[in-house]
What we know:
Layout: H1 3-12, H2 18-29, H3 34-41, H4 45-52, H5 60-70, E1 107-110, E2 113-117, E3 128-134, E4 149-156, E5 159-163, E6 166-170, E7 175-179, E8 184-187, E9 194-200
Antiparallel strand pairs: 1-2, 2-3, 3-9, 4-7, 4-9, 5-6, 5-8
Amino acid sequence: MRRSERVAAADGAGRPDLVGSRMRQFRTERGLTLRGLASRSGLSIGFLSQVERGVSSIGLTALNSVAAALDRPVAEFFNDEPASTEPETTRLPTHFTLTRADNGATQYVSGQQTYRMLSDRGPNLVLEPMLVHIAPGGRREEAYGHAGEEFAYVVRGELLYEVDGVEHRLYPGDSVHLRSNVAHRLFNDTAEVTTVVSVVTPRLF
Length: 205
């Protein structure tokens, strides 16, 4: 991600209502009804309506399916400025990235969840490592399956992680690793912020 995109995304991070409003904007621009978007994304009409109205939050993996259905990059749902069209000036290595702590990580907010990207983009890399802060309360997002794999390691707090309809309570040091095509969702039902290291495939940004 270019520096201009990084700054824009960070500015959008303070707008937890932005994802829903951008979803509605992109949907109407394509002339899609909620039913049409639900059919394309695999998510329910009711859930998408709640997200658009700011009643429910949507996880990044589910948002990735919405973005694909609307033919939009995921980052545009967090950014109220047009995507930059200036060309890349720095050639990225094809086999690795090196992300320093002082680089200023890109951060996104969706409802109760704040996602901090832990690595820069790499053209041949498929993992998406993130530090996720999950605020207490809020509505549970819809259980959802998607292509790829997902790993979550609890650093602080507690987390309810539902896999295929079964809830598992995770404590610091606990982790879960699953094929993401199984319906799953997570929720923080405590009074404290939960922090999780999450790695998903494929990359979302």
